[in-house]
């Protein structure tokens, strides 16, 4: 969706915060996947934190983007976690069986 906003910022401790707002659907998931994989493989932060507090919808492609980011971070031996997944977003992550893997990294 054109209205999906993805902002990144580096914290003083070297971690990278990725803040996502709006809907993470087929149109936005490729961009999110690219940002997360690039961060893990090229920016090399100490940890990647994905904040989903303002995400109103996520589909299977969005969940796949989060999983791809986590997998890239694991390959590079970086921490990765999703935070503030609530409501429908948390339900989607639970339904796929990825809630614990993504939120406790």
UniProtKB/TrEMBL annotation:
PROSITE patterns: STAS (PS50801). CDD domains: STAS_anti-anti-sigma_factors. Residues 13-105 form the STAS domain. It comes from the Bacteria. Pfam families: STAS_2. This is STAS domain-containing protein. It comes from Planosporangium mesophilum. The lineage of its organism: Bacteria, Bacillati, Actinomycetota, Actinomycetes, Micromonosporales.
